[in-house]
Write a structure and sequence with these properties.
Number of helices: 13
Bound molecules: flavin-adenine dinucleotide
CATH class of the domain at 3-76 and 191-256 and 351-413: Alpha Beta
CATH topology of the domain at 3-76 and 191-256 and 351-413: FAD/NAD(P)-binding domain
Radius of gyration: 21 Å
Strand content: 15-25%
CATH architecture of the domain at 3-76 and 191-256 and 351-413: 3-Layer(bba) Sandwich
Mean pLDDT: 92
Distance between the termini: 41 Å
Number of strands: 17
Length: 437
């Protein structure tokens, strides 16, 4: 069954969906239209590109299969963090020091872009500054400190060090050894932000369509995208459909793996409890390979994410298993009721680096279908910048887009059927390492 269908139930019980008011739906595409650029996918990557393109004077249609923010953008952990999902050495090895530096700088620009857009379009989305990276044992503490030292030495990015004796002042949990703090990263309500960005795109002139799944794509100088009730002909196209594109672009789907990750959210906690959990109110991630990520919300709940799944079936007892994870970190929350539990899929690439590029074109015309994928669970901020640089490329300056497009990506070994077992084996090894003190 297509992921778009199996995934529907994963989003139903999200805290985010329960705490936004959606305006009227955007219309279904029910005619044949021409435009400069068609965007497939109403997540942050697609919306960011559409907004920027419209501001450059392009006529833009954005087609979303379900609702704006249906995918990862509307249900993620809300943590906007510097850097990429992979370490910078992956980028250095492929692009060399100078371009690795450009990539790093663009990840920081992505944070500024996100906060700038919140201000510019007055998006009320609960932004709070601050990110804590925490190591769960001494060995990981040493690795984290070495990583922070290198980041400062090579990229000039300073992180505040948190020594073992100080960690208790940053988090009310005995589970952590030491950490780092970054004041430039932060967290927000991702669905409010995504809907706000959609509003800005609409204001800029983008035609947004919901419940308009693209079911067929015909390449050519004029690309044709068909939905059940209409079609769009466009000179250029952006595929920003994350893990859901599947059969629409099989060559892209082979290079990413949908991995489920899950979040639970408590009832509102008494102020005295919530304020003590993470006194700085920063977003928090541990440094495990299968990481836990959590934060307190503006309305004083603990929003706790983690776990992974390689099956596309929603895990049974999701709320209970996430509760156990949360209580292992914060035993003082043992009596807190879980009010929401949900999940979604991240688009993991083999090396965890983002996978941006163009589909090869048939002979006789230039490539005109761009794609953005492989955010590997670290896309909340980067999607915005990615949308902006794809817009630059479509407008004729691909210099920044092509830095990313030069990154090489491998297909998951064994094709579609063996993708899952090979990833599971790799993850099992990393999990074992996480458990070693
Ligand atoms: C549970 C969870 C927690 C996460 N936590 C964090 C976090 O804390 N910090 C962080 O940086 N990142 C996080 N991420 C990752 C981050 O959310 C993603 O990298 C980012 O939102 C990807 O945006 P996108 O626009 O590429 O994809 P999406 O937001 O998934 O958007 C793709 C859209 O395309 C649509 N679509 C697909 N196919 C078609 C088609 N054929 N026709 C029309 N529309 C189509 C889908 O319906 C979907 O709405 C998390 C992800 C998940 C799932």
């Amino acid at each position: 069954m297509p992921l778009l269908d199996t995934d529907q139930e994963l989003t139903r019980d999200s805290y985010y969906a329960a705490t936004v008011v959606r305006g009227a739906s955007y219309p279904v595409l029910d005619e044949t239209v021409d435009c400069d650029v068609a965007v497939v996918g109403g997540g942050l990557a697609g919306l960011s590109a559409a907004l920027d393109l419209a501001q450059r004077g392009f006529s833009v249609r954005l087609l979303e299969a379900r609702e704006i923010g249906f995918g990862a953008s509307g249900r993620n952990g809300g943590q906007a963090i510097h850097g990429l999902a992979c370490d910078q050495d992956v980028i250095e090895a492929q692009l060399g020091a100078a371009d690795a530096r450009r990539v790093w700088d663009m990840t920081i620009e992505a944070l500024d872009l996100l906060q700038g857009r919140i201000r510019k379009y007055r998006i009320d989305c609960d932004w709070r500054s601050g990110y804590l990276g925490l190591a769960r044992n001494a060995r990981k503490g040493v690795e984290l400190a070495a990583w922070a030292d290198r980041l400062e030495a090579v990229y000039g990015y300073p992180l505040q060090r948190i020594a073992p004796a100080e960690v208790g002042g940053w988090i009310a949990s005995g589970e952590f050894h030491s950490g780092v703090h970054d004041a430039r990263s932060g967290h927000l309500h991702p669905l409010k932000y995504t809907l706000g960005l959609a509003g800005a795109a609409r204001e800029a002139g983008v035609h947004l369509h919901e419940n308009s799944e693209v079911v067929a794509l015909r390449q050519g100088p004029q690309v044709e995208l068909r939905t059940a009730r209409g079609s769009v002909r466009a000179r250029q196209v952006l595929l920003a459909g994350n893990v859901y594109l599947q059969g629409l672009a099989p060559a892209l789907a082979a290079r990413i793996m949908p991995v489920g990750t899950y979040i639970a959210c408590t009832e509102e906690l008494p102020d005295v409890v919530a304020d003590a959990l993470i006194p700085s109110r920063s977003a928090v991630c541990d440094t495990n390979f299968v990481l836990d990520y959590f934060r307190t919300t503006n309305d004083q709940r603990m929003l706790y994410g983690g776990r992974v799944s390689y099956s596309t079936v929603t895990p049974s007892n999701l709320a209970q298993s996430m509760r156990q994870r949360m209580v292992a970190t914060f035993p003082q929350l043992a009596a807190a009721r879980i009010e929401h539990a949900w999940g979604g899929f991240v688009d993991i690439s083999m090396n965890r680096a983002p996978d941006f590029g163009r589909l090869p074109a048939a002979a006789g015309h230039a490539p005109n279908i761009y794609y953005l994928q492989g955010f590997s669970g670290h896309g909340l901020a980067l999607t915005g910048l990615a949308g902006q640089i794809v817009a630059e490329a479509m407008a004729g300056d691909a210099s920044r887009f092509d830095v990313f497009a030069r990154l090489r990506h491998r297909r998951f070994p064994g094709g579609r059927l063996l993708r899952t077992p090979s990833l599971v084996l790799g993850m099992a090894w990393h999990r074992l390492r996480d458990k070693l003190a």
